[in-house]
């Protein structure tokens, strides 16, 4: 097990991380894969919405907002 | 709950997509693409249809059709819902997938965003797995140029094995070339050799094995490799779709337990991963990006518009500013138009007198129909002509997804779907459109909540009521500069109340008749786009202003006649109108309004646009007949009928919360396929309106404020 692995929603804004794995199943997992969230994809946490959730991430050139429930199912490694 | 499409067969698909094939020579072209790639603009530019396109995800929920002629052939273009992929099995994706797969289009055009090519290629590769006849349209080339992104179209075409055309659909650049490529591919003059994704050995072996087992005569049009892949992927819906559209029952026999784990996560990751990696590989070969200055600018704008501190205040301030400009700007033209139209009325009366026309004829035509129409036009036209372009501007800039981003947490807390923020925004345009828009919500529970609560945001037809009551009454009460400020604040407060009610009622529904937890949600925040002012003005004037006004006039003319008759047909020396109003009076009084107002809302059921005109008509036919030449006169008329600020507030509240208009109700019936939910949608806002206005009226009276 590599170090620094944590769920995506916990990484601070402005920080980039590399996808280490998905813990979601079913259609949520498919949707994540559709965004291109395969292993080793670089994701940057951009900003929180005014109430702190959802959080916007840059994923493969697009800005995608994810609720913490979803982002917590994306395990990333800080870089 | 009756939300599924139960009809079967090829006819069902054609019917669902409502394609009319005139002659067998017609060529059917499917138009696919990610959301927000300007796909609908390509569609509009090609077909000349003025279908509205907004800069946000999920605009095309239903498929639009149009046709164009090229080289003496008739091409029918089918605008499929925008999707990122065809693997996730959402409602939109199934429609798009089934049409490409079973609708037998002669060619499929995939519109991709030049500024975000790599991700868009994911869909291109998936579609190329299903069909060979693909043309890739790389749109937004101008945006890419502005952002210093270069796309090597020639190389892309080489790598994909299909024709690639660069376009700027907004200016029409490259569309001839696109039509030519479509012509050649659909006419088989140009045989494409699409690059297929190759998977790892075990998947390829499994595909081969299953492919050999599918020997039922499904016809040559269905791609066996692709179906095998879907079966390995564990996609049950494809089997259903095959059955639905071809009548064939495909049951995979002898599932070998030693085969790779069918539909398992590892396998699916491998399949999607192979596609994503190929897209990444192709993207890196054809795209050259010089710098990220524009991305930084987008980020800076977002830093303000979605900031923790300023995000929501900015949103409210923007809304308030729009209303302020509308109220300030609409005042003078309203007066001028009213004056002009009522001068014409005098002339018309003169004409009737000159020809000795019977009194009743003058009454019906001039006092009934003409006067109502004149009021509809002078009260509604100026605010709409100012408000709609401003609202369209916000839409075009890409601000609405930011609104959804800012508000999502509240929707989550209300146990509602995040996309409801978007369908709510659609409701600002038209509630019927908002209800149809709810199709983008997959979960039936959350979809129903979004449908039932859609009416809590005022539509195009109700904005004029809010704006005119505010202008005439609330703002008129103050003086000078402050009157417009107070007016803008009032309307903003009403809208915010609408949003709060949407959330509150969603929460109540989630805890009572529609219990459940919110499902997953993700939202794309597209880059800000430079708005096209010319297009905005043309579109908002023609698509919205003329449409709303036209509808109002269509309904107001017969309503004017009806009201005039009611006001002039007496039973026991009291007109029918007065009977009706007197009957409603006690109840209406309890709600802080009067019988005429309530009756105007009831008679306005076909279209809310006519509530104000009906009310003015009723007042004029019963009270002292004063000449109405200005908004000031209108104000006196209302006051002479006992209006106070409470009446004005409660009219606005009731306007915000009452039974949906006829069109919206019929749409709800059509969408939910259930009278029960239509009834619920009717009752929920009505009860909310009654409760709120009742409490307001009683509270104000009890406190002795008026």
Task: List the main descriptive attributes of the protein structure presented here.
heterodimer, A: 79 residues, alpha+beta, SH3 type barrels, six-stranded antiparallel β-sheet, 41% strand, B: 706 residues, alpha/beta, Helix Hairpins, 3 domains, two-stranded antiparallel ribbon, 11 strands, 7% strand
Briefly say what this structure is.
The complex is a heterodimer of chains A (79) and B (706). With 79 residues, chain A is α+β, with helices and mostly antiparallel strands.
Write the layout of secondary structure elements.
The complex is a heterodimer of chains A (79) and B (706).
Chain A: E1 5-7, E2 16-22, H1 26-34, E3 42-48, E4 55-59, E5 62-66, H2 68-71, E6 74-78
Antiparallel strand pairs in A: 1-6, 2-3, 2-6, 3-4, 4-5
Chain B: H1 9-16, E1 27-33, H2 39-47, E2 64-70, E3 73-79, H3 91-102, E4 107-113, H4 117-130, E5 134-139, H5 141-146, E6 149-151, H6 153-160, E7 164-166, H7 175-186, H8 201-213, H9 224-232, H10 236-246, H11 265-286, E8 287-289, H12 293-305, H13 311-354, H14 359-397, H15 400-413, H16 420-429, H17 431-437, H18 444-453, H19 463-477, H20 481-511, E9 522-524, H21 533-568, E10 570-571, E11 574-575, H22 576-590, H23 595-603, H24 611-622, H25 631-640, H26 645-656, H27 662-672, H28 675-702
């Amino acid at each position: 097990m590599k170090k620094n692995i944590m769920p995506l929603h916990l990484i601070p804004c402005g920080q980039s991380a590399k996808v280490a794995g998905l813990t979601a199943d079913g259609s949520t997992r498919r949707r994540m894969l559709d965004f291109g969230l395969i292993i080793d994809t670089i994701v940057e946490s951009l900003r929180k919405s005014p109430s702190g959730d959802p959080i916007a991430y840059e994923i493969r050139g697009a800005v995608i907002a994810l609720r913490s429930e979803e982002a917590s199912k994306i395990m990333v490694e800080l870089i | 709950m009756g939300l599924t499409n139960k009809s079967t067969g090829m006819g069902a698909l054609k019917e669902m997509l409502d394609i009319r094939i005139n002659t067998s020579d017609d060529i059917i072209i499917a138009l696919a693409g990610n959301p927000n790639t300007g796909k609908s603009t390509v569609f509009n530019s090609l077909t000349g249809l003025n279908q509205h396109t907004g800069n946000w995800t999920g605009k095309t929920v239903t498929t639009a059709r149009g046709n164009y002629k090229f080289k003496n052939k008739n091409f029918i273009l089918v605008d499929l819902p925008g999707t990122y992929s065809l693997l996730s099995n959402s409602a939109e994706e199934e429609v798009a997938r089934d049409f490409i797969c079973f609708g037998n289009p002669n060619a499929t055009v995939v519109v991709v965003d030049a500024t975000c090519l790599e991700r868009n290629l994911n869909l291109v590769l998936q579609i190329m797995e299903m069909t060979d006849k693909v043309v890739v349209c790389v749109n937004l080339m101008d945006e890419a140029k502005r952002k210093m992104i270069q796309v090597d179209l020639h190389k892309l075409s080489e790598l994909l094995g299909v024709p690639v055309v660069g376009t700027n659909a907004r200016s029409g650049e490259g569309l001839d070339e696109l039509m030519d490529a479509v012509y050649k591919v659909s006419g088989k003059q140009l045989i494409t050799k699409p690059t297929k994704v190759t998977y790892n050995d075990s998947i390829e072996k499994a595909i081969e094995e299953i492919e050999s087992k599918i020997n039922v005569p499904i016809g040559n049009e269905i791609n066996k490799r692709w179906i095998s892949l879907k079966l390995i992927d564990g996609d049950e819906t494809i089997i259903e779709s095959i059955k639905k559209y071809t009548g064939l029952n495909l049951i995979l026999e002898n599932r070998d337990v030693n085969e790779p784990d069918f539909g398992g996560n590892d396998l699916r990751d491998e399949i999607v991963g192979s596609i994503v990696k190929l897209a990444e590989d192709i993207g890196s070969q054809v795209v050259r990006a010089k710098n990220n200055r524009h991305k930084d600018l987008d980020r800076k704008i977002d830093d303000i518009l979605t900031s923790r501190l300023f995000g929501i205040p900015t949103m409210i301030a923007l809304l308030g500013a729009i209303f302020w400009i509308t109220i300030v700007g609409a005042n003078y033209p309203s007066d001028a138009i009213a004056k002009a139209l009522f001068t014409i009325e005098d002339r018309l009366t003169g004409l009737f007198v000159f020809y000795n026309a019977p009194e009743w004829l003058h009454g019906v035509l001039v006092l009934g129909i003409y006067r109502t129409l004149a009021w509809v036009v002078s009260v509604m036209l100026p605010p709409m002509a100012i408000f709609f372009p401003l609202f369209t501007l916000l839409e075009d800039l890409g601000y609405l997804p930011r609104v959804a981003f800012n508000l999502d947490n509240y929707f989550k807390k209300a146990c509602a779907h995040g996309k409801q923020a978007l369908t709510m925004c659609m409701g600002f345009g038209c509630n019927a459109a908002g209800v149809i828009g709810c199709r983008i919500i997959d979960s039936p529970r959350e979809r129903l909540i979004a449908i039932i609560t859609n009416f809590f945001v005022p539509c195009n037809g109700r904005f004029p009521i809010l704006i005119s009551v505010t202008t005439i009454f609330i703002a008129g009460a103050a003086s000078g500069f402050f009157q417009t400020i107070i007016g803008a604040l009032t309307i903003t407060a009403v809208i915010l109340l609408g949003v709060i009610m949407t959330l509150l009622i969603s929460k109540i529904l989630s805890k009572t008749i529609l219990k459940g937890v919110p499902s997953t949600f993700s939202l794309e925040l597209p880059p800000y786009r430079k708005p096209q002012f010319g297009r905005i003005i043309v579109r908002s004037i023609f698509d919205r202003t003329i449409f709303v006004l036209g509808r109002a006039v269509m309904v107001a003319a017969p309503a004017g006649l009806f009201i005039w008759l009611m006001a002039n047909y007496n039973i026991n020396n009291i007109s029918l109108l007065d009977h009706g109003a007197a009957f409603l009076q006690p109840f209406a009084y309890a709600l802080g309004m009067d019988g005429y107002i309530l009756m105007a809302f009831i008679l306005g059921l076909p279209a809310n646009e006519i509530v104000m005109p009906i009310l003015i008509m009723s007042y004029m036919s019963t009270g002292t007949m004063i000449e109405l030449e200005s908004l000031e006169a209108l104000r006196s008329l209302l006051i002479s009928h006992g209006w106070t600020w409470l009446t004005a507030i409660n009219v606005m509240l009731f306007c915000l919360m009452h039974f949906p208009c006829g069109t919206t109700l019929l749409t709800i019936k059509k969408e939910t396929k259930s009278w029960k939910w239509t009834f619920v949608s009717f009752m929920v806002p009505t009860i909310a309106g009654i409760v709120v206005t009742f409490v307001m009226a009683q509270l104000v009276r009890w406190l002795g404020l008026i």
